[in-house]
Each structure stands twice: as structure tokens, then as C-alpha cells.
Amino acid sequence: MVSANKEMVVYCFDTLVAHFNGEQVPPPAFDEGEHPLFVTWKKAVNGGEPRLRGCIGTLEAQCIINGFKDFALTSALGDRRFPPIQAKELPFLQCTVSILTNYENAANYLDWEVGKHGIIIEFTDPNYNTRRSATYLPDVAAQEGWSTIEAIDSLIRKAGYNGTITESVRKRIELTRYQSTLFTMHYGDYVSYVKSARGVALSVVGLKSR
């Protein structure tokens, strides 16, 4: 099984930096494979807790080299919840890559563990008779301090349901649980990696030297 690693995060940073510089992305230093994956960008300012800046991926297996290249940019520039990341934000960014594994059909909406499982919910909206779905990665509920029911109710809202959340609505859910491997790197560590591994100082168009 392929696990998330440092080289995958470096490739995501490489992809974003190449975008700002109008250059080709350096070749990746990890092997090809096919897995579901996500790329998450967070931004920390003034020593505060890193806050979400973009997160997009796929629940379907795909080639991870193109996947990380595509989703590094899509999550940074195309997450509709946030304005596109700018070059001047790079020093405050951290990137996390997630590779999803061990998909299982749960017995019910409570059949999963906070901190261990990511979850995908699917259900029929009783008000509109439309199918709705949404997912949270395995680290989300634990970071938010949610119980299983609090996470489920938040995910129901994320899926677009605006009615009253009742036990009847929760019992409509078909839940798939999964696990993931993660690797997180801050921009400063990426700069150090480029200098030590490639022997060059990183330069980014639109970012003043610090």
C-alpha cells in the first residue's frame, strides 16, 4: 500500500510555485500508483492555529502523480469557499496530502470512530426527493472536537440539506467509512528541502525575499 510521504507534499508545493513562476513542474520523486487522494492547504498567521485555505480531492482511485498535480492547484486556486491563494501567502502555508484507504460500508450512521475514520454520507433529501452526499476526511471531526452525531449533523448541512435534522433524517444515511495516511509540511520546510536536495535557493514571482 502506498502511504502519503514528504515527496508528495513537495510535489504539491512545486506545482503551486511553478504556477506562480510560469514554469514547468519538476518531476516527482515518488512512484506512480492509483488511489483516492486529497490536497489540503492551511494558512497560519501571527502564530495562530492554521486555518483552512482550500481542500479538494477525489474519492475515486486515480493516478496519483496527475492527481496531486491537479488537486494541488484546484484546492489552492479553485475552492469556491475561498479566494484563490496568492504568491504572497506562501510563507504562511502548510500543505497536507491524504491518500484514502480501507473503504467499508458501515452498518449505520454511528458505525465509525472519530479520529480513525473518514466518512462519506449519502441520503435522499425528504423535502426535495434528491440525493445528497458529502465527506469529511479522518482528521476533521477530531480537530473540531465533534462527537459522531455532531460530525454527522455538520456533514448533513455540508451536503446541502437545509431542513430540520431529525433522527429520521439521520437514519436515511448510507455511510461509507475509510481511513487515510497523511503527510504535512510547512512552506519553510519546503524551502529548506529545495535548498538541501537541489542545491538552489527558491525564488517565487510575486513573493518578496524575506
Query: Helix coverage percent of residues?
Result: 25-40%
Largest sheet: 6 strands, antiparallel
By DSSP, the count of extended strands is 6
Model regions low in confidence, pLDDT < 50 over at least 5 residues? none
Q: Report how far the terminal alpha carbons are from each other.
A: 40 Å
Global shape? elongated
What is the H-and-E element order? Answer: HEEHEEEHHHEH
Structural class: alpha+beta
What share of the residues does DSSP label as strand, in percent?
A: 25-35%
- Give the helix tally: 6
What is the CA-based Rg, rounded? 19 Å
Spatial order of the strands in the main sheet?
2-1-3-6-4-5
Question: What is the average of the pLDDT values?
Answer: 95
What features would you describe in this structure?
By secondary structure, the protein is an alpha+beta fold. It contains 6 helices and 6 strands, in the order αββαβββαααβα. It has helices spanning 6-21, 64-77, 140-144, 148-158, 167-170, 187-198, and strands spanning 34-43, 51-63, 93-105, 118-125, 130-136, 174-186.
Topology:
Elements: H1 6-21, E1 34-43, E2 51-63, H2 64-77, E3 93-105, E4 118-125, E5 130-136, H3 140-144, H4 148-158, H5 167-170, E6 174-186, H6 187-198
Antiparallel strand pairs: 1-2, 1-3, 3-6, 4-5, 4-6
Structure in a nutshell:
With 210 residues, this protein is α+β, with helices and mostly antiparallel strands. The protein is 30% helix and 30% strand.
